[in-house]
Amino acid sequence: MDIALQINGTTEHLDIAPGVTLLDALREHLGITGPKKGCDRGQCGACTVHIGGRTALSCLTLAATVRDPVTTVEGLSTSDGLHPVQQAFADQDALQCGFCTPGQIMSAVAAAAQGIDDPDEVREFMSGNLCRCSAYPNIVAAVRRAGAEERRTDATV
Amino acid sequence: MRPFELTVPATVDEAVASGHTFLAGGTTLVDLMKLDVVTPPRVADITALPLRGISTEDGLRIGALERMSDVAAHPGVPPAITRALTLSASQQLRNMATIGGNLMQRTRCGYFRDTTMPCNKRSPGSGCGAIGGTNRMHAVLGASRHCAATHASDLAVALVALDAELRITGPDGTRALPLTDFYRTPGDTPDIENDLRSGELITDVLVPHPEHAANSTYVKIRDRRSYEFALCSVAATLEVTGGVVAEARIAAGGVGTIPWRLPGVEAALRGEPATESSFAAAAEIAAHGAEPLAHNGFKVPLLKRTLVRALLDLTGGGER
Fold it and tell me: Which of B97, B111, B256, B264 has the fewest CB atoms lying closer than 10 Å?
Protein backbone atom coordinates (compact mmCIF):
# COMPACT_ATOMS: atom_id res chain seq x y z
CA MET A 1 0.00 0.00 0.00
CA ASP A 2 1.09 3.58 -0.68
CA ILE A 3 1.69 5.74 2.36
CA ALA A 4 3.21 9.13 3.14
CA LEU A 5 5.25 9.76 6.28
CA GLN A 6 6.58 13.06 7.59
CA ILE A 7 10.03 12.21 8.92
CA ASN A 8 12.25 14.91 10.42
CA GLY A 9 10.52 17.60 8.38
CA THR A 10 10.59 15.74 5.07
CA THR A 11 7.60 13.99 3.45
CA GLU A 12 8.51 10.45 2.36
CA HIS A 13 6.36 8.30 0.07
CA LEU A 14 6.55 4.53 0.48
CA ASP A 15 4.93 1.41 -0.98
CA ILE A 16 4.88 -1.10 1.86
CA ALA A 17 2.92 -4.08 3.23
CA PRO A 18 0.41 -3.29 6.04
CA GLY A 19 2.51 -5.27 8.52
CA VAL A 20 5.65 -3.13 8.13
CA THR A 21 6.41 -1.36 11.39
CA LEU A 22 7.49 2.25 11.56
CA LEU A 23 10.87 0.97 12.75
CA ASP A 24 11.35 -1.20 9.65
CA ALA A 25 10.05 1.56 7.38
CA LEU A 26 12.65 3.93 8.84
CA ARG A 27 15.58 1.54 8.88
CA GLU A 28 15.00 -0.74 5.90
CA HIS A 29 13.09 1.51 3.50
CA LEU A 30 14.40 5.01 4.28
CA GLY A 31 17.91 4.29 5.60
CA ILE A 32 17.21 6.16 8.84
CA THR A 33 19.08 3.93 11.25
CA GLY A 34 19.10 6.03 14.43
CA PRO A 35 16.15 4.09 15.89
CA LYS A 36 17.53 0.67 16.80
CA LYS A 37 15.94 -2.78 16.71
CA GLY A 38 16.72 -4.28 20.10
CA CYS A 39 13.93 -6.62 21.20
CA ASP A 40 11.40 -5.72 18.46
CA ARG A 41 8.71 -6.50 21.07
CA GLY A 42 8.15 -3.18 22.82
CA GLN A 43 10.26 -4.10 25.83
CA CYS A 44 13.67 -2.38 25.43
CA GLY A 45 12.96 1.15 24.18
CA ALA A 46 15.85 1.24 21.66
CA CYS A 47 13.38 2.07 18.87
CA THR A 48 11.89 5.11 20.67
CA VAL A 49 10.94 7.99 18.37
CA HIS A 50 8.57 10.94 18.70
CA ILE A 51 5.22 10.79 16.90
CA GLY A 52 3.31 14.05 17.02
CA GLY A 53 5.79 15.30 19.61
CA ARG A 54 5.28 12.37 22.00
CA THR A 55 7.51 9.39 22.64
CA ALA A 56 6.41 6.13 21.05
CA LEU A 57 7.86 2.72 20.27
CA SER A 58 8.35 2.46 16.51
CA CYS A 59 8.60 -1.36 16.68
CA LEU A 60 4.96 -1.68 17.84
CA THR A 61 3.65 1.01 15.48
CA LEU A 62 2.48 0.03 12.00
CA ALA A 63 3.86 2.59 9.53
CA ALA A 64 0.59 2.69 7.63
CA THR A 65 -1.25 3.93 10.74
CA VAL A 66 1.04 6.93 11.37
CA ARG A 67 -0.60 10.27 10.58
CA ASP A 68 1.43 12.69 12.72
CA PRO A 69 4.98 13.93 12.07
CA VAL A 70 7.79 11.63 13.20
CA THR A 71 11.06 12.78 14.74
CA THR A 72 14.03 10.44 15.10
CA VAL A 73 17.36 11.15 16.77
CA GLU A 74 18.60 12.32 13.36
CA GLY A 75 16.07 15.16 13.53
CA LEU A 76 17.28 16.65 16.82
CA SER A 77 20.52 18.38 15.91
CA THR A 78 20.68 21.53 13.82
CA SER A 79 23.38 23.29 11.80
CA ASP A 80 24.23 25.06 15.06
CA GLY A 81 25.26 21.76 16.66
CA LEU A 82 23.95 19.03 18.88
CA HIS A 83 20.62 19.18 20.68
CA PRO A 84 21.17 20.08 24.37
CA VAL A 85 20.17 16.55 25.41
CA GLN A 86 22.67 15.03 22.98
CA GLN A 87 25.34 17.37 24.33
CA ALA A 88 24.45 16.41 27.90
CA PHE A 89 24.80 12.69 27.07
CA ALA A 90 28.25 13.37 25.62
CA ASP A 91 29.32 15.59 28.52
CA GLN A 92 28.09 13.15 31.19
CA ASP A 93 29.54 10.07 29.45
CA ALA A 94 26.01 8.62 29.47
CA LEU A 95 26.76 5.71 27.17
CA GLN A 96 29.14 2.84 26.65
CA CYS A 97 28.36 0.78 23.53
CA GLY A 98 25.79 3.35 22.35
CA PHE A 99 23.20 0.96 20.94
CA CYS A 100 20.41 2.13 23.25
CA THR A 101 21.50 5.78 23.12
CA PRO A 102 19.21 7.08 20.33
CA GLY A 103 16.18 5.70 22.17
CA GLN A 104 17.48 6.96 25.51
CA ILE A 105 17.93 10.43 24.03
CA MET A 106 14.43 10.54 22.55
CA SER A 107 12.95 9.70 25.97
CA ALA A 108 15.36 12.10 27.69
CA VAL A 109 14.20 14.96 25.43
CA ALA A 110 10.65 14.32 26.66
CA ALA A 111 11.79 14.12 30.29
CA ALA A 112 13.70 17.40 30.05
CA ALA A 113 10.77 19.10 28.31
CA GLN A 114 8.45 17.99 31.13
CA GLY A 115 10.81 19.39 33.76
CA ILE A 116 11.45 16.02 35.42
CA ASP A 117 14.46 16.49 37.69
CA ASP A 118 14.07 14.40 40.87
CA PRO A 119 16.44 11.40 40.43
CA ASP A 120 13.73 8.86 41.33
CA GLU A 121 11.32 10.48 38.90
CA VAL A 122 13.97 10.49 36.18
CA ARG A 123 14.63 6.77 36.75
CA GLU A 124 10.89 6.07 36.65
CA PHE A 125 10.45 8.08 33.44
CA MET A 126 13.44 6.39 31.78
CA SER A 127 12.53 2.83 32.89
CA GLY A 128 11.25 1.94 29.44
CA ASN A 129 14.74 2.35 27.99
CA LEU A 130 17.06 -0.52 28.89
CA CYS A 131 20.86 -0.20 28.81
CA ARG A 132 22.76 -3.48 28.80
CA CYS A 133 25.99 -1.66 29.58
CA SER A 134 24.19 -0.28 32.64
CA ALA A 135 25.20 3.34 32.13
CA TYR A 136 22.18 4.33 34.18
CA PRO A 137 23.82 6.68 36.74
CA ASN A 138 25.30 8.80 33.97
CA ILE A 139 22.07 8.69 31.96
CA VAL A 140 20.20 10.07 34.99
CA ALA A 141 22.86 12.78 35.34
CA ALA A 142 22.55 13.67 31.64
CA VAL A 143 18.77 13.93 31.80
CA ARG A 144 19.02 16.22 34.84
CA ARG A 145 21.76 18.34 33.25
CA ALA A 146 19.75 18.73 30.04
CA GLY A 147 16.64 19.71 31.99
CA ALA A 148 18.58 22.28 34.01
CA GLU A 149 20.04 23.68 30.79
CA GLU A 150 16.55 23.91 29.29
CA ARG A 151 15.21 25.79 32.33
CA ARG A 152 18.21 28.14 32.33
CA THR A 153 17.66 28.89 28.62
CA ASP A 154 13.96 29.47 29.21
CA ALA A 155 14.74 31.89 32.04
CA THR A 156 17.03 34.00 29.86
CA VAL A 157 14.76 34.19 26.81
CA MET B 1 4.20 -11.27 10.83
CA ARG B 2 1.69 -12.97 8.56
CA PRO B 3 0.19 -10.90 5.74
CA PHE B 4 -3.13 -9.21 6.49
CA GLU B 5 -5.44 -6.59 5.03
CA LEU B 6 -5.54 -3.17 6.74
CA THR B 7 -8.72 -1.13 6.58
CA VAL B 8 -9.54 2.33 7.94
CA PRO B 9 -13.24 2.59 8.83
CA ALA B 10 -14.56 6.16 8.73
CA THR B 11 -17.30 5.70 11.34
CA VAL B 12 -18.04 3.55 14.39
CA ASP B 13 -20.92 1.93 12.49
CA GLU B 14 -18.62 1.06 9.63
CA ALA B 15 -16.08 -0.39 12.07
CA VAL B 16 -18.55 -2.64 13.90
CA ALA B 17 -20.11 -3.80 10.62
CA SER B 18 -16.70 -4.78 9.24
CA GLY B 19 -16.07 -7.76 11.52
CA HIS B 20 -12.36 -6.91 11.35
CA THR B 21 -9.98 -7.07 14.30
CA PHE B 22 -9.71 -3.61 15.86
CA LEU B 23 -6.29 -1.95 16.08
CA ALA B 24 -5.90 1.04 18.42
CA GLY B 25 -2.56 1.72 20.16
CA GLY B 26 -1.18 -1.59 18.89
CA THR B 27 0.88 -2.32 21.99
CA THR B 28 -0.81 -5.70 22.49
CA LEU B 29 -2.08 -6.58 19.02
CA VAL B 30 1.06 -5.80 16.99
CA ASP B 31 3.17 -7.61 19.61
CA LEU B 32 1.00 -10.75 19.48
CA MET B 33 0.81 -10.66 15.67
CA LYS B 34 4.62 -10.66 15.53
CA LEU B 35 4.62 -13.71 17.81
CA ASP B 36 1.96 -15.47 15.65
CA VAL B 37 -0.18 -15.75 18.79
CA VAL B 38 -2.98 -13.96 16.94
CA THR B 39 -3.22 -14.01 13.15
CA PRO B 40 -6.14 -11.84 12.01
CA PRO B 41 -6.73 -11.81 8.23
CA ARG B 42 -8.22 -8.30 8.36
CA VAL B 43 -7.34 -5.48 10.77
CA ALA B 44 -9.25 -2.21 11.12
CA ASP B 45 -7.25 0.86 12.22
CA ILE B 46 -9.79 2.62 14.44
CA THR B 47 -7.52 5.37 15.77
CA ALA B 48 -9.19 8.10 13.69
CA LEU B 49 -12.69 7.35 15.05
CA PRO B 50 -14.24 10.08 17.24
CA LEU B 51 -13.97 8.13 20.49
CA ARG B 52 -11.99 10.69 22.47
CA GLY B 53 -12.68 13.13 25.23
CA ILE B 54 -12.80 13.10 29.02
CA SER B 55 -15.90 14.56 30.64
CA THR B 56 -16.65 15.06 34.35
CA GLU B 57 -20.08 16.65 33.99
CA ASP B 58 -22.26 13.65 34.84
CA GLY B 59 -19.87 11.20 36.42
CA LEU B 60 -16.56 10.54 34.70
CA ARG B 61 -16.71 9.56 31.04
CA ILE B 62 -13.56 8.54 29.17
CA GLY B 63 -13.57 7.98 25.42
CA ALA B 64 -12.18 4.54 24.59
CA LEU B 65 -9.47 5.97 22.31
CA GLU B 66 -8.04 8.31 24.95
CA ARG B 67 -4.40 7.44 25.62
CA MET B 68 -3.32 6.20 29.04
CA SER B 69 -0.96 9.15 29.58
CA ASP B 70 -3.66 11.73 28.77
CA VAL B 71 -6.14 10.13 31.18
CA ALA B 72 -3.51 9.95 33.91
CA ALA B 73 -2.80 13.68 33.50
CA HIS B 74 -6.47 14.75 33.66
CA PRO B 75 -7.33 16.57 36.93
CA GLY B 76 -10.85 15.11 37.09
CA VAL B 77 -9.65 11.51 37.27
CA PRO B 78 -9.67 9.92 40.78
CA PRO B 79 -6.37 8.94 42.44
CA ALA B 80 -6.88 5.16 42.12
CA ILE B 81 -7.18 5.44 38.32
CA THR B 82 -4.30 7.92 38.01
CA ARG B 83 -2.01 5.70 40.10
CA ALA B 84 -3.01 2.53 38.27
CA LEU B 85 -2.19 4.23 34.97
CA THR B 86 1.10 5.83 35.99
CA LEU B 87 2.32 2.54 37.50
CA SER B 88 1.56 0.73 34.22
CA ALA B 89 4.09 -0.08 31.50
CA SER B 90 6.53 2.67 30.41
CA GLN B 91 5.93 6.28 29.41
CA GLN B 92 6.30 5.37 25.73
CA LEU B 93 3.66 2.64 26.01
CA ARG B 94 1.35 4.91 28.02
CA ASN B 95 1.54 7.47 25.17
CA MET B 96 0.45 4.77 22.71
CA ALA B 97 -2.01 2.49 24.50
CA THR B 98 -5.68 3.47 24.67
CA ILE B 99 -8.17 2.97 27.51
CA GLY B 100 -10.30 0.55 25.49
CA GLY B 101 -7.24 -1.35 24.36
CA ASN B 102 -5.93 -1.52 27.92
CA LEU B 103 -9.12 -3.26 29.02
CA MET B 104 -8.84 -5.66 26.06
CA GLN B 105 -5.14 -6.52 26.54
CA ARG B 106 -4.27 -10.20 26.69
CA THR B 107 -2.53 -12.07 29.47
CA ARG B 108 1.26 -12.00 29.83
CA CYS B 109 1.36 -15.76 30.58
CA GLY B 110 4.55 -17.04 28.93
CA TYR B 111 2.82 -20.19 27.67
CA PHE B 112 0.13 -18.11 25.96
CA ARG B 113 2.81 -16.01 24.25
CA ASP B 114 4.87 -19.01 23.05
CA THR B 115 3.29 -20.90 20.15
CA THR B 116 5.55 -23.92 20.75
CA MET B 117 3.84 -24.47 24.13
CA PRO B 118 0.39 -25.86 24.94
CA CYS B 119 -2.19 -23.22 25.92
CA ASN B 120 -5.96 -23.64 26.17
CA LYS B 121 -6.49 -19.90 25.86
CA ARG B 122 -4.56 -19.59 22.58
CA SER B 123 -5.31 -23.06 21.22
CA PRO B 124 -8.35 -24.62 22.96
CA GLY B 125 -7.86 -28.26 23.91
CA SER B 126 -4.06 -28.17 23.67
CA GLY B 127 -3.62 -28.20 27.47
CA CYS B 128 -2.18 -25.75 29.98
CA GLY B 129 1.57 -25.49 30.23
CA ALA B 130 1.50 -23.33 33.33
CA ILE B 131 -0.50 -25.45 35.77
CA GLY B 132 2.14 -28.18 35.84
CA GLY B 133 4.95 -25.90 34.75
CA THR B 134 6.37 -22.57 35.83
CA ASN B 135 3.55 -20.68 37.51
CA ARG B 136 5.04 -18.14 39.90
CA MET B 137 3.25 -15.28 38.11
CA HIS B 138 -0.09 -17.06 37.82
CA ALA B 139 -3.47 -16.71 39.46
CA VAL B 140 -4.46 -18.11 42.85
CA LEU B 141 -8.09 -17.01 42.46
CA GLY B 142 -10.54 -17.86 39.69
CA ALA B 143 -8.42 -20.44 37.91
CA SER B 144 -9.72 -23.70 36.47
CA ARG B 145 -7.91 -26.92 35.57
CA HIS B 146 -7.65 -25.49 32.06
CA CYS B 147 -6.08 -22.07 32.73
CA ALA B 148 -4.51 -19.99 35.51
CA ALA B 149 -3.40 -16.94 33.52
CA THR B 150 -3.76 -13.58 35.28
CA HIS B 151 -5.41 -10.55 33.75
CA ALA B 152 -2.61 -8.05 33.12
CA SER B 153 -4.35 -4.67 33.35
CA ASP B 154 -3.78 -2.35 36.32
CA LEU B 155 -6.45 0.07 35.10
CA ALA B 156 -9.13 -2.63 35.05
CA VAL B 157 -8.53 -3.36 38.73
CA ALA B 158 -9.08 0.28 39.66
CA LEU B 159 -12.16 0.53 37.44
CA VAL B 160 -13.66 -2.64 38.91
CA ALA B 161 -13.24 -1.19 42.41
CA LEU B 162 -14.91 2.05 41.27
CA ASP B 163 -18.03 0.33 39.82
CA ALA B 164 -17.16 1.44 36.28
CA GLU B 165 -19.37 0.66 33.30
CA LEU B 166 -18.59 0.15 29.64
CA ARG B 167 -20.53 1.62 26.76
CA ILE B 168 -20.41 -0.86 23.89
CA THR B 169 -21.55 -0.47 20.28
CA GLY B 170 -22.17 -3.43 18.03
CA PRO B 171 -24.06 -4.52 14.94
CA ASP B 172 -27.24 -4.71 17.05
CA GLY B 173 -26.91 -1.29 18.67
CA THR B 174 -25.49 0.17 21.86
CA ARG B 175 -25.49 -1.31 25.35
CA ALA B 176 -24.05 -0.57 28.78
CA LEU B 177 -22.37 -3.19 30.93
CA PRO B 178 -20.82 -3.05 34.41
CA LEU B 179 -17.13 -3.89 34.17
CA THR B 180 -17.65 -6.52 36.90
CA ASP B 181 -19.90 -8.39 34.42
CA PHE B 182 -17.49 -7.96 31.50
CA TYR B 183 -14.60 -10.30 32.32
CA ARG B 184 -15.03 -14.07 32.50
CA THR B 185 -13.08 -16.58 34.54
CA PRO B 186 -11.60 -19.34 32.35
CA GLY B 187 -13.77 -22.30 33.37
CA ASP B 188 -13.91 -24.77 30.48
CA THR B 189 -13.43 -22.01 27.86
CA PRO B 190 -10.28 -19.98 28.65
CA ASP B 191 -10.33 -18.65 25.09
CA ILE B 192 -13.49 -16.65 25.93
CA GLU B 193 -12.19 -13.82 28.12
CA ASN B 194 -15.05 -11.32 28.18
CA ASP B 195 -18.64 -10.60 27.24
CA LEU B 196 -17.79 -8.74 24.02
CA ARG B 197 -19.66 -10.22 21.06
CA SER B 198 -18.57 -10.41 17.46
CA GLY B 199 -18.13 -6.95 15.95
CA GLU B 200 -18.68 -5.11 19.22
CA LEU B 201 -16.47 -2.15 20.14
CA ILE B 202 -15.98 -0.45 23.52
CA THR B 203 -16.71 3.24 22.91
CA ASP B 204 -16.65 4.75 26.42
CA VAL B 205 -15.72 3.96 30.00
CA LEU B 206 -17.99 5.48 32.64
CA VAL B 207 -17.34 5.94 36.34
CA PRO B 208 -20.82 6.94 37.59
CA HIS B 209 -19.65 8.21 40.99
CA PRO B 210 -16.05 9.41 40.91
CA GLU B 211 -16.77 11.26 44.18
CA HIS B 212 -16.77 7.84 45.90
CA ALA B 213 -13.11 7.59 44.94
CA ALA B 214 -12.00 10.96 46.29
CA ASN B 215 -10.05 9.01 48.92
CA SER B 216 -8.67 6.16 46.82
CA THR B 217 -5.39 4.57 45.88
CA TYR B 218 -3.74 1.81 43.90
CA VAL B 219 -0.86 -0.14 45.41
CA LYS B 220 1.18 -2.32 43.07
CA ILE B 221 3.75 -4.88 44.17
CA ARG B 222 6.17 -6.16 41.53
CA ASP B 223 9.57 -7.75 41.04
CA ARG B 224 11.06 -4.48 39.78
CA ARG B 225 10.36 -0.97 40.98
CA SER B 226 9.18 0.17 37.57
CA TYR B 227 8.02 -1.12 34.18
CA GLU B 228 6.76 -4.52 35.35
CA PHE B 229 3.45 -6.32 35.71
CA ALA B 230 1.91 -6.81 39.14
CA LEU B 231 2.63 -9.76 41.39
CA CYS B 232 -0.21 -8.36 43.42
CA SER B 233 -2.07 -5.06 43.42
CA VAL B 234 -4.96 -3.52 45.33
CA ALA B 235 -7.27 -0.69 44.31
CA ALA B 236 -9.24 0.71 47.22
CA THR B 237 -11.58 3.52 48.15
CA LEU B 238 -12.27 4.30 51.78
CA GLU B 239 -14.84 6.58 53.39
CA VAL B 240 -14.30 7.08 57.12
CA THR B 241 -16.74 8.91 59.43
CA GLY B 242 -15.79 9.51 63.04
CA GLY B 243 -13.02 6.95 62.87
CA VAL B 244 -15.36 4.25 61.56
CA VAL B 245 -15.39 2.80 58.03
CA ALA B 246 -18.60 3.98 56.34
CA GLU B 247 -17.84 2.49 52.93
CA ALA B 248 -15.01 0.66 51.19
CA ARG B 249 -14.57 -0.57 47.64
CA ILE B 250 -11.73 -2.97 46.97
CA ALA B 251 -10.40 -4.97 44.04
CA ALA B 252 -7.19 -6.94 43.59
CA GLY B 253 -4.94 -7.53 40.58
CA GLY B 254 -2.13 -9.96 39.80
CA VAL B 255 -3.79 -12.68 41.86
CA GLY B 256 -6.90 -13.52 39.83
CA THR B 257 -7.76 -14.67 36.34
CA ILE B 258 -9.88 -11.51 36.15
CA PRO B 259 -9.76 -8.23 38.12
CA TRP B 260 -10.91 -9.50 41.50
CA ARG B 261 -13.50 -7.50 43.43
CA LEU B 262 -13.54 -8.30 47.15
CA PRO B 263 -17.12 -7.72 48.42
CA GLY B 264 -16.55 -9.91 51.48
CA VAL B 265 -13.67 -7.72 52.63
CA GLU B 266 -15.72 -4.59 51.97
CA ALA B 267 -18.58 -5.96 54.13
CA ALA B 268 -16.14 -6.94 56.88
CA LEU B 269 -14.73 -3.39 56.94
CA ARG B 270 -18.06 -1.51 57.11
CA GLY B 271 -18.81 -0.29 60.61
CA GLU B 272 -15.39 -1.26 61.94
CA PRO B 273 -12.82 1.19 63.27
CA ALA B 274 -10.40 2.46 60.62
CA THR B 275 -7.40 0.88 62.31
CA GLU B 276 -4.63 -1.45 61.24
CA SER B 277 -5.99 -4.27 63.40
CA SER B 278 -9.45 -4.20 61.82
CA PHE B 279 -7.89 -3.85 58.35
CA ALA B 280 -5.79 -6.94 59.06
CA ALA B 281 -8.83 -8.84 60.34
CA ALA B 282 -10.82 -8.01 57.19
CA ALA B 283 -7.84 -8.87 54.98
CA GLU B 284 -7.84 -12.41 56.39
CA ILE B 285 -10.77 -13.28 54.11
CA ALA B 286 -9.29 -11.59 51.02
CA ALA B 287 -7.86 -14.81 49.62
CA HIS B 288 -10.90 -16.91 50.47
CA GLY B 289 -11.11 -19.76 47.98
CA ALA B 290 -7.51 -19.36 46.81
CA GLU B 291 -5.98 -22.45 45.21
CA PRO B 292 -2.24 -21.86 44.88
CA LEU B 293 -0.14 -23.78 42.36
CA ALA B 294 3.41 -25.00 42.95
CA HIS B 295 5.14 -21.61 42.75
CA ASN B 296 2.59 -18.89 43.50
CA GLY B 297 1.54 -19.61 47.08
CA PHE B 298 3.34 -16.46 48.21
CA LYS B 299 0.55 -14.43 46.60
CA VAL B 300 -1.88 -15.39 49.38
CA PRO B 301 -0.06 -13.58 52.21
CA LEU B 302 1.08 -10.92 49.73
CA LEU B 303 -2.55 -10.10 48.88
CA LYS B 304 -3.45 -9.68 52.55
CA ARG B 305 -0.47 -7.42 53.23
CA THR B 306 -0.96 -5.34 50.09
CA LEU B 307 -4.57 -4.81 51.09
CA VAL B 308 -3.65 -3.62 54.59
CA ARG B 309 -1.01 -1.30 53.13
CA ALA B 310 -3.51 0.24 50.70
CA LEU B 311 -6.01 0.88 53.51
CA LEU B 312 -3.31 2.35 55.74
CA ASP B 313 -2.30 4.65 52.86
CA LEU B 314 -5.91 5.88 52.80
CA THR B 315 -5.95 6.63 56.52
CA GLY B 316 -2.64 8.48 56.47
CA GLY B 317 -0.83 5.67 58.26
CA GLY B 318 0.92 4.00 55.36
CA GLU B 319 4.38 4.20 53.95
CA ARG B 320 5.13 4.62 50.30
Answer: B264
Query: B224, B231, B172: which is closest to B196 by C-alpha?
Result: B172
A39, A49, A54, A118, best to mutate vs chain B, most B CBs in 10 Å: A54
Q: Please check whether the domain covering B52-210 is classified as CATH 3.30.465.10.
A: yes
Q: What is the pLDDT of residues A73-96, one digit of tens each?
A: 999 999 999 999 999 999 999 999
pTM of the model: 0.97
CA B240/CA B19 separation, integer angstroms: 48
In this prediction, the answer to ipTM > 0.90 reads: yes
**Helix B276-283 / helix B299-314 crossing angle, nearest 10 deg:** 150
Q: How far is B6 from chain A (nearest CA, A)?
A: 6
Q: Which CATH number fits domain B214-314: 3.40.50.300, 3.40.630.30, 3.30.390.50, 3.30.379.10?
A: 3.30.390.50
Q: Comparing C-alpha atoms, which of B242, B237, B240 is closest to residue B310? A: B237
Residue of B nearest to A107 (CA): B92
B291, with CB counted inside 10 A (0-12, 13-18, 19+), is middle
- The residue of chain B with its CA nearest to that of A61 is B26
Residue A157's pLDDT band, with cuts at 50, 70 and 90, is low
Q: What is the pLDDT of residues B109-145, one digit of tens each?
A: 999 999 999 999 999 999 999 999 999 999 999 999 9
Q: Write down the domain spans for chain A.
A: 2-75, 84-156
Give which of B2, B91, B113 to mutate to test A binding, by max A Cβ within 10 Å.
B91
Q: What residues in A contact B96, CB-CB < 8 Å?
A: 56-57, 60-61
Residue of B nearest to A21 (CA): B30
Residues of A in contact with B30 (CB under 8 A): 21, 42, 60-62
- Considering only the top CATH level, what class is A84-156? mainly alpha
| Residues B44-97: tens digit of each pLDDT | 999 999 999 999 999 999 999 999 999 999 999 999 999 999 999 999 999 999
The domain limits of chain B are 52-210, 214-314
